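Problem statement: downstream parser choked on a complex file, so we are re-checking the raw output for the adenosine-5'-triphosphate run. The parser issue turned out to be on our end (a line-ending mismatch), but while we're here, posting the original submission so the record is complete.
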Amino acid sequence: MANNTVTMDKLVALCKARGIVFPGSEIYGGMGNTWDYGPVGVEIKNNIKRAWWKRFVTESDNSYGVDAAILMNSRVWEASGHTTSFSDPKMDCKHCKTRHRADNLIEAHSKGTVNPDTMSDEEMQNYISEHHVCCPVCGNFDWTPIRTFNLMFETSRGVTDESQNKIYLRPETAQGEFVNFLNVQRTTRAKVPFGIAQIGKAFRNEITPGNFIFRTIEFEQMEHQWFCKEGTDGDYYKEFKQKAFDFLTDLGFKAEHLRFHDHDKLAHYAKEACDIQYLYPMGWQELNGIHNRTDYDLSRHQEYSGKTLTYVDPVNGEKFIPYVIEYSIGADRLMLAVLSEAYDEETLENGETRTVMHFHPAIAAYKAAILPLQKNLAPQAKELWGRLRKFFSVTYDEAGSIGKRYRRQDEIGTPYCVTVDFDSLENATYTVRDRDSMEQVRLTEGEIVAFLTKNCAF
Ligand code: ATP
């Protein structure tokens, strides 16, 4: 398993060839930092989101889901601080007219030995001058001064100029959970501590190169906000660090491909913050964040909305604004990590190489592929496919030799191949091949249902 063999080029090529991810607007020459999920990719991504939701909402004792609007009242972004401080330090190369993040330039130049997170804009500017950090595109040293660049996408509502009103595409899903704190608490009768989770699109006008689906301008976040009382926040912060880590190892990530990275420079509202980083093909990078956001969010929304967001303890009548432990992970960034972790090239006994994606079966697009050994067994195979499809996501393939069909399924990570052969007509059993071990067993239809139910659960 992952992964010395995987490179970003190999992943991008496999994703394109097998219908996992395509470049956005491809027939028009593409559009930077946008990608479209294909027939196989959309299934994988949905399964990732489903596994996350199951772990953090369905199977969680006191967590509730919401699906808030992407477009929110602009006051939300004033309260959250995004209109004033959600920005990157950017510099333009005057020679080739490309735009770069000063912190990224320093990180790349110092090969990760200097941490720009702790530097002010002036310190970054000085570093770039003193070390003569050149433009990575054209190699010249001809920079504008650092300017801050707000990452929020703006749009406007209203049909006439007079009624135009600036609004934003949300840069994070978290605010949808905060503004619904009272609604959720009231309708579920939840007592603090409790959680609100959401999966949804977020948008950021990112200027740095994307590394495939790692950093895109439109992406999905899976966020869980845990509302708790001050004083208990430290323990919950630790608990969520562990839960976030366990979720990843349960999905099949090797622990040595993951590490915690504590933030040196904390956002003004944060008490503690860390990332879990994954060893991506391009190196260690943030996969998700865990933040102790104190009572900042609810206090700010209380101040800006004029609505009381104070929680009243039903037992002792104590009033307080809850602290928030946030766990936030990008579905697309997790998808890239899942793809990298699963990718493998194996040399077989006959000397051939097979590319195989060792996904957790719950994440695989299809739990099984039904393959008639020969075309004249197609009617029986299709009947079996029709029956199994009621329970699982199952695909069907009759094109080409059985060996070629196995390879195609290996490349998209289908955990089991079910072959219908002439014996199947005699004794109603089928050959079930395991993707990873390539071993085969003979099972009846009822046994296949039980086998897939057990092996594909998360
Ligand atoms: P980075 O430092 O990589 O820009 P961030 O610290 O700004 O990330 P957060 O604001 O904490 O990220 O967002 C939470 C999560 O959302 C990240 O851990 C990541 O998984 C995901 N995410 C953030 N920005 C992007 C993006 N542009 N494309 C894809 N996923 C993203």
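For whoever reads this later: Residues 172, 204, 206, 215-216, 219, 221, 286-289, 328-330, 332-333 surround adenosine-5'-triphosphate (CB under 6 Å).
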